[in-house]
Amino acid sequence: MNAVLILSALMLCPSAADAAPAMRPPAVPLVTHDPYFSVWSFDDKLTDGWSRHWTGKVNPLCGLVRIDGKPYRFAGPDPKDVPAMEQRSLAVTATSTVYDFTAGGVALQVTFLSPLLPDDIDFLSRPATYVTFKAAASDGAEHAVQVYLDITGEWCVNKPDQEVQWDHTAFNGSSALYMGTTAQRVLFRKGDDLRIDWGRVYLALPKQKGALLRAGLADESRDTFAKKGNLRSKDIKGPRRANDEWPVLAALLDFGKTGKEPATRQAILAYDDEYSIEFMGNKLRPYWRSGGMDAAGMLATAVQDYASLAERCCEFDAKLAKKLESAGGAEYAQMCLLAYREAMAAQKIAADGDGAPVMFPKENFSNGCISTVDVIYPAAPVFLLLNTKLEAAQLKPVLDYAASSRWPWPFAPHNLGTYPLANGQVYGGGEKTEKNQMPVEESANMILILGAMAKKDGNADFANKYWPTLVKWTEYLAEKGLDPENQLCTDDFAGHLAHNVNLSAKAILALGAFSQLCDATQRPDDAKKYLALAKGMAEKWVTMADEGDHYRLAFDKPGTWSQKYNLVWDKLLGLNLFPADVARKEVAHYLKVQNVYGVPLDNRKDYTKLDWLVWSATLAEKKEDFEALIAPAYKFLNETPSRVPITDWYDTKTGKMVGFQARPVIGGLFIKALPTP
Q1: What is the pLDDT of residues 323-380, one digit of tens each?
Q2: What is the DSSP string of 438-480?
Q3: Exposed end of the chain (fewer CB within 10 Å): N or C?
Q4: pLDDT at position 435, please?
Q5: Does 125 lie in the same domain as 225?
Q6: Quick one: pLDDT at residue 173?
Q7: Residue 320 domain-assigned?
Q8: How far apart are CA 113 and CA 207, in angstroms?
Q9: How many domains does the chain have?
């Protein structure tokens, strides 16, 4: 692909910087594909600090430009003696991040495109981000422009003292450098605050004029470019530790003389992990490798597909933004667009033994579990809205595990293990005891998601494959759901809570959802049975939870309140189990008790959950009430001092993160855009 083709693809889409409303993200997505290949800027300006892995560990991206021989920085804080370009704007869409810089009479636009198209799993699973540079004179004169980009070995290690090696490769006339650890202990580590240390990171250059790749040492490589406009003549020798003078993969892109007509150059950042997940003892390939493709093939295909992908991403971004704004207003839309790549990058799409896609979310910075059901549940709206096949890919491993002889309990499991090892539940009692499990929570979560999938798909074929398991869970809810005993729920950070009113509502609505599943699978008698049961329980709930102008936190705790976010499914599934006045009372109460950054989760603490806040706001009948509840959350994203990928657990008075960041649950923000019957 040549520069003209790149330019034509870029011109298909208006500048995101011109289209997006102003927002200061707490962190800016740059390279976002899966829990290991997820790199962000935690600063207002790309030159203020090094880019970071979502965990906060440094994954440096250094960007320099020479304009008429004078060096400037556009990414990273070093070299310190090189001045920063002026950052004129920043815009974030669902698939792109666009920075506009200026210096020395030249405007430089840097676009990070992660083509996470939800309707095409081949592209969605491909871990390749395009970094496109568009340069043009801003003063009417011609200028000599050169761009430099490098990444360090920190992109492919867990700790910087690990040893790395690098080499060149070529593909279809294009070239790449790659780097990985010498140890290559594939799927060896499991846990939360970890980076990948197997597989290889790639810096690739499509065939284009004035392009050069070289491995070097960070200071020397950057200084050589800044002072001389070239890269050192020979590659450095390895292996060496990642922190031993910081070996880098470096690219030089020479624009030659640039005038008022924009010229473009491009690099690709990619990662080949070779194996992604271990599921019940079997190592699974990443889905993009399922047809036998290797890293060179992936890069060649990425180059070949760029023009069509850029156009499709542009169309997707525009349609999604329009849909979101229509559903909840401009501020709501911008919140969701910022959340999109975070939700997608917390998942890994692998191929099962038959080559079918299976998707595994990671419970980032809460405990590192894999395929946690009460994480899948809040994240579900983004997949229910955009592609239920992705939801099925998430649920299938959980359902297969629950239906196996490994899982002994009459309720749904909490998780499948600790990422990236999905070899069986590790939370609470695991497979050994019911103690510290979430029986009502997880069983209801699974049935509600399956009910929502069936509503969207117009059939319950997927749920029907697991019918005996679902019946078992539903019977458990029928017995335990109305007034749950001292159980944990998804808000387990708040501790056990007996007689949980919101958890009870979830169980009741799940019974209603199962009734709809029975209808969809031609089981009319069962449908009537479970609908009658749900209606009777809902009637009791209204009386048991009544606190006058709202409903209680727990049935036995007068004078309390909580967000009843689970009630949103009564509306979305068209169940109508609860009187409309229940939601009206709750929304009116939320408007009374909200703080500067939103409604607290309940009366016990000032903290909230961003996903649940949006679900609770979705209960509102009036547009102005929804917007009044969303506005403080939008304000939080713009003002929080916690500069991390969106945290879903924060203090509503200070705006500070309490815990959690970069979690898949942020996909729950899309719930307002789901259709209602």
Answers
A1: 999 999 999 999 999 999 999 999 999 999 999 999 999 999 999 999 999 999 999 9
A2: -HHHHHHHHHHHHHHHHHHHT--HHHHTTHHHHHHHHHHHHHH
A3: C
A4: 83
A5: yes
A6: 84
A7: no
A8: 19
A9: 2
Q: Which pLDDT band holds residue 249 (cuts at 50, 70, 90)? A: very high
Q: How far apart are CA 531 and CA 409, in angstroms?
A: 25
Side-chain-facing half-sphere of 489: CA atoms under 13 Å: 24
Residue 194 structural domain: 3-313
Q: Are residues 466 and 597 in the same domain?
A: yes
Given 275, 294, 313, the domain boundary residue is 313
**Residue 5 pLDDT:** 31
Q: Is position 356 within any domain?
A: no
Quote the tokens at residue 390: 């992705």
Which strand (E) or helix (H) includes residue 169? strand 163-171
Q: Which of 246, 281, 313 is the last residue of a domain?
A: 313
Q: Are residues 398 and 261 in the same domain?
A: no
**Token pair of 642 as six digits:** 């916690």
Assess whether 372 and 451 both reside in one domain: yes
User: For residue 101, with 0-12 CB atoms within 10 Å meaning exposed, 13-18 middle and 19 or more buried, which class applies?
Assistant: buried
Query: Please, which pLDDT band fits residue 496 given cuts at 50, 70 and 90?
Result: confident
Report the distance separating Cα 631 and Cα 326, nearest Å.
16
Hey, what's the torsion of the CAs at 213, 216, 217, 220, to 10 degrees? -80
Cis status, amide bond into 381, omega within 30 of 0: no
Cβ neighbors of 534 (< 8 A, separation 6 or more) are: 508, 509, 511, 512, 515, 575, 577
Higher per-residue confidence, 496 vs 27? 27
The dihedral of CA 175, 29, 64, 107: what is its sign? Answer: positive
Please list, in sequence order, all residues whose beta carbon lies within 8 angstroms of the beta carbon of residue 528, skipping any fewer than 6 positions away.
Answer: 515
Q: Does the residue 348 lie in any domain?
A: no
For the record, the structure tokens of 298 come out as: 């992936």
Q: Label the pairing between strands 28-32 and 38-41.
A: antiparallel
* Confidence band of 6 (pLDDT split at 50, 70, 90): very low
pLDDT band (50, 70, 90) for residue 13: low
Residue pair 143/257 in contact by the 8 Å Cβ criterion: yes
The domain that holds 28 is classified in CATH as: 2.70.98
Does the residue 329 lie in any domain?
no
What percent of the chain stands above pLDDT 70? 97
pLDDT at 80 over 60: yes
The pLDDT score that the predictor gives to residue 237 is: 87
296 and 434 housed in the same domain: no
Q: Taking the mean position of all CA atoms in its chain, how far away is CA 655?
A: 21
CATH code of the domain containing 443: 1.50.10.10
Cα–Cα distance measured from residue 672 to residue 336, given in angstroms and rounded to the nearest whole number: 10
Same domain, 73 and 219: yes
Give the pLDDT band of residue 11 (cuts 50, 70, 90).
Answer: very low
> According to the model, what pLDDT value does residue 235 have?
80
**Does one domain contain both 509 and 639?**
yes
pLDDT the model gives residue 17: 45
* Pair (404, 274) in one structural domain: no
φ, ψ for residue 459 (rounded to 5)?
A: -160, 165
Q: Write the pLDDT tens digit of every residue in 150-169.
A: 999 999 999 999 999 999 99
Tell me the pLDDT tens digit for each residue of 89-102: 999 999 999 999 99
